[in-house]
Amino acid sequence: MRVQVGEDKETLEEVFDGRTLTTVMHLLNRGRLRELQGAVKSGKESRIYRGIDMKGGDVAVKIYLTSSAIFRQGRLKYIRGDPRFKDIPHDTRSLIDQWASKEFKNLQLAKEAGLAVPTPIYVEKNVLLMEFIGKNGVPAPHLREVPLQAASSWYDKIVEMLQDLY
Question: What is the pTM of this model?
Fold first, then answer.
């Protein structure tokens, strides 16, 4: 087992606090991951890393930033009033862990409904493992990154998927 990280120190400290490092080490030690490689996508609330599973296949490792005030500001409105969050302490780490769990469950529901979403694999604390969408470690582009002609052909598919989900 090995961990490869090619980011600068600031990014490492932002993503890999002691608790998150412990969680990643648990995933490696329990055979959920064989390797954790570099970041493939970065956002305000999380980073997505390429991971290698025990069979040598790619997996996406989404790590929610535990120190992010942006997370608390941006997601609190979705948590208030949701019965799944009523018994969760409202400290940032607990909310982030619950948000990762909620995303895992929503991906399961969407997959069961036959939607084209990454297959959720496992969630622990603020770390979510899911199917890697891409080839040879290169993630598939977001819809906003696809040429307009190609993106427009997806519109009807997206509307249909939303109807299937709801």
Answer: 0.81
